[in-house]
Amino acid sequence: MTFLSSFRLCSLTRSLSLAAALVSLAGASQAQYLWLQREGPVVEARMGDLAKGGQPLAGLLAPRAFLADGKDLPLAAEAERLAISAPAAPADLRVVTSRVDGASGTPVLNYYQAKFGRAETKAVNDLELVPTEPNGNTFKLVWKGNTVAASQVNVDTSEGWRRVLKPSKDGTVTLGTPFPGLYLLEVTARVNGAVTVDGKKYEDVRHTATLSFEVAR
After folding, report:
1. How far apart are CA 88 and CA 102, in angstroms?
2. Does 26 score more than 50 pLDDT?
3. CA neighbours within 13 Å on the CB side: how many for 79?
4. Which of 43, 40, 45 is nearest to 56 (CA)?
5. What does the pLDDT read at residue 3?
6. Which pLDDT score, from 0 to 100, does residue 171 have?
7. pLDDT at 4 over 70
8. pTM value?
9. For residue 87, is the peptide bond before it cis, meaning its omega torsion is within 30 degrees of 0?
10. What is the C-alpha separation between 129 and 78, in angstroms, rounded?
11. DSSP symbols for 123-183
């Protein structure tokens, strides 16, 4: 499968081409992503834009919360969040789901893959940002086990600080964490070519991955 995105694929086993088609966070009405944040003993999954707040979760298909070992975690669907009963750190937590948008025009099949925590360096989701060392500030992007050199990674924070990270020569990106709060990294890739799911063909298919973590005071 070939992808169009703002990343260049670096794989020794496959030759997948990623071109510039990243969904921009800034000023794009369709630039929604799923992210995770902790509220006491609960981890919340929210949809939308961290700077603008969460949006209704209507239409999400089969959301699943789980740990790296595959253990599912209980979640409760509410109007604007999924509430997940989660263990305390250092266990990283993941949520995956999908949604079909654009019903009035060409339908877009979106796959959302969110991770909370940066203790684990091995990717589990199809598209995932992982630190190069536990709890580190340098990250690489992995697509189905293959390392991807990201041409840019978007950053949002709970303090309203936003950045676009550019890769170093080895394809990784490094994020400074100068203040406490929630940090969120996001990438989105668009599939080049149609995909058929449950007998329905989608011409526009996108994968969005987020990694969020907290820096303590």
Report:
1. 37
2. no
3. 0
4. 45
5. 36
6. 84
7. no
8. 0.84
9. no
10. 27
11. --SSEEEEESSTT-SEEEEEETTEEEEES-EEEEETTS--EEE---TTS-EE----SSEEE
